[in-house]
Specification:
Helix content is about 20%, strand content about 35%. The chain is α+β, with helices and mostly antiparallel strands.
């Protein structure tokens, strides 16, 4: 990866990328044991191209493909094509695609939390989504939040944890983990994850925002003592009825959600369809 990053030149092209892989100095056996997925943006034609190397692929439509590689691919290559439900707000085609993928990685993340599947297959730690920002003509990682609720016949409880992603620079991901302490207050524990291409000497970036609200938030509606599966609600944007804000004076996070949000989530968790 370091060889490719240092030697790739504009304009990017698929043949150039494949040649760089061949010239990377890897043995033939090593070339057969690695996989790459490159996303490129041609500024002249304003088109996005994908160049893959030894990856799997699932076609779920004439113009819709999923490419994957690595130890967690079984999450994606058989039942990825399912109907997206529970996403609220005005969404465009790109956001719909993000929502479908986000639903799938949320299922995988939930399996990480409740089972040993990820450990058995030697992967884990969550997932990230990379999207194209047409305003800046570049690819960017999209901050995500994951919120866990407990659902009973009598109501809904924000049990946690809450995981919120933020990015510093181009590579350093900080996962902010909010959970309740013995007093019932929400406490923040940050974890910094840097690219393996960077220095090992990384520090957790200082938290400067007054909010942990992300562009996309996944709410896990987990049944407590019920023989039903977990349900997901994906919320886009800020005005969703749910917010996480920092009270700097008291040095603690305050989590607010509206009555309408709670009623919608409870109704969705206990019924077959989303209420209209």
């Amino acid at each position: 990866m370091k060889h490719i990053r240092e030697n790739i030149k504009r304009p990017y092209s698929a043949p150039q990328i494949l040649q760089l892989i061949q010239d990377s100095g890897l043995l033939e056996s090593e070339l057969q044991s690695v996989s790459f997925i490159f996303l490129g943006h041609d500024t002249e034609t304003e088109t996005i191209f994908v160049q893959d190397y030894l990856t799997g692929q699932t076609c779920i439509g004439p113009n819709h493909k999923f490419k994957y590689a690595g130890s967690g691919t079984f999450h994606f290559f058989d039942s990825i094509a399912y109907e997206l439900r529970g996403m609220r707000g005005e969404i465009n085609e790109a956001e719909t695609a993000i929502g479908i993928l986000l639903s799938r990685i949320s299922v995988a993340l939930y399996e990480e939390v409740i089972s040993d599947i990820s450990h058995n297959y030697f992967y884990g730690g969550g997932f990230e989504i990379l999207g194209f920002n047409p305003n800046l003509s570049r690819f960017e990682k999209i901050p995500l939040s994951f919120v866990f609720w407990s659902i009973t016949d009598n109501g809904i409880d924000l049990c946690g944890p809450i995981l919120s992603q933020s990015y510093s620079g181009t590579d350093v991901l900080t996962i902010q983990r909010l959970s309740r302490d013995s007093s019932g207050s929400w406490r923040l524990k940050p974890y910094a994850v840097a690219s393996f291409l960077d220095s090992e000497d990384i520090t957790v970036p200082e938290f400067t925002n007054d909010s942990l609200n992300s562009p996309f938030t996944v709410h896990f509606l987990v049944p407590a003592g019920r023989n039903s599966s977990v349900r997901l609600i994906i919320k886009k944007g800020k005005d969703t009825g749910f917010s996480i804000n920092l009270n700097r004076e008291k040095k603690k996070f305050v989590i607010d959600y509206t009555k309408e949000f709670a009623e919608e989530a409870l109704a969705y968790a206990l019924r077959d369809e989303i209420p209209t």
